[in-house]
Amino acid sequence: MYTLLKTEGSARRGRLTTPHGTIETPVFMNVGTLAAIKGAVSSMDLKEIGCQVELSNTYHLHLRPGDKVVRKLGGLHRFMNWDRPILTDSGGFQVFSLASMRKIKEEGVYFSSHIDGSKIFMGPEESMRIQSNLASTIAMAFDECVENPAPREYVERSVERTTRWLDRCRKEMDRLNSLEDTINRKQMLFAINQGGTYKDLRVLHARQISGMDMDGFAIGGLAVGETHDEMYDVIEAVVPYLPKDKPIYLMGVGLPENILEAVDRGVDFFDCVLPARNGRHGHVFTNSGRLNLNNARFETDDAPIDTTCSCPTCRNYTRGYIRHLFKAKEMLAMRLCVLHNLHFYNTMMEEIRDALDSGTFREYKVQKLAMVRGKL
């Protein structure tokens, strides 16, 4: 159940009650594709750095270790020792990212495994069954994510197929949740809005899926080729046509400035691999702009990554030491930077919620944008 607590313009402060705990929104979900954050970050670490929701991927876990293995081990929560909410992506993004290795048909998508080339089929029903075996808190509907730009005729057909797939997902999820041996019989289902950068198709699809019985709604198919301004235009067009009493999730986005702009336009949920991926390469986010710790200027720098940060890394280690770890190819370098970046994102979301609570989000947004762009 989603409760809208407060608004400031289009920005929303909310709370989603789930079978695995309450989520305060706006929220950033920390991405653990294979039930682990890349960079040697544990589930205990996630709690220390303020993570509310962990996100894992249906397609990847289906391949390795296998969703049936996870089911035998009690579902994702027991498997990875995480007792807070988990969202599983449906595998729909892999329809986009593995374009050279798949064929799309009405019944679903035929993949060649990126691991060993073996043949895999995934349709709406298969995606729901896999996610039910994983027993995540929130399952995502199976959809097609198209690249931007894409021909309008193709996007129209894709959106229509995604809507038909959504209906099949809902029916299969209801069936699975009715079974006695289902691990999480209260598994939630989010629909996904598609339509490329064609705002009229986006609005049409939003109208169609809003009438269906869903626990939340996502805006998919963005951050895949369009400009930031195009992305913001799509969000502005779509949000007014999605239910006000359900959470809205912008998939795969993004930079701190993207999140701030999307919150201002009414988005509640975010995820992105960026903070962990950047951290593994020594690129860190701070309240005075982004830094590349591989640069020579940090060789003898005895300051923490960010003097305003209270993460485990900044409390204990210097820029100079972390640069040394990268040059020595020590795994600890990645771990420390990923911890810092995820803490930065989770803390920013807490600041956003506090600003919305106090009615000062607009002022906060202006200041934070200047900070992350290194202009303060």
Automatic annotation (TrEMBL):
Residue positions of the active site: 89, 271
Ranges for domain tRNA-guanine(15) transglycosylase-like: 10-369
Cofactor note (record): Binds 1 zinc ion per subunit.
Pfam family, one: TGT
Entry keywords, A to Z: Glycosyltransferase, Metal-binding, Queuosine biosynthesis, Transferase, tRNA processing, Zinc
EC numbers on record: 2.4.2.29
GO BP term, pick one: tRNA queuosine(34) biosynthetic process
Record's function text: Catalyzes the base-exchange of a guanine (G) residue with the queuine precursor 7-aminomethyl-7-deazaguanine (PreQ1) at position 34 (anticodon wobble position) in tRNAs with GU(N) anticodons (tRNA-Asp, -Asn, -His and -Tyr). Catalysis occurs through a double-displacement mechanism. The nucleophile active site attacks the C1' of nucleotide 34 to detach the guanine base from the RNA, forming a covalent enzyme-RNA intermediate. The proton acceptor active site deprotonates the incoming PreQ1, allowing a nucleophilic attack on the C1' of the ribose to form the product.
Keyword Protein transport: no
Family named by the database record: Belongs to the queuine tRNA-ribosyltransferase family.
Name of the protein in question: Queuine tRNA-ribosyltransferase
Cofactor: Zn(2+)
Superkingdom as given in the UniProt entry: Bacteria
Binding site for substrate: 89-93, 143, 194, 221
Gene3D superfamilies for the chain: Queuine tRNA-ribosyltransferase-like (3.20.20.105)
Sequence segments annotated as region (RNA binding): 252-258, 276-280
Binding-site list for Zn(2+): 309, 311, 314, 340
Organism: Youngiibacter fragilis 232.1
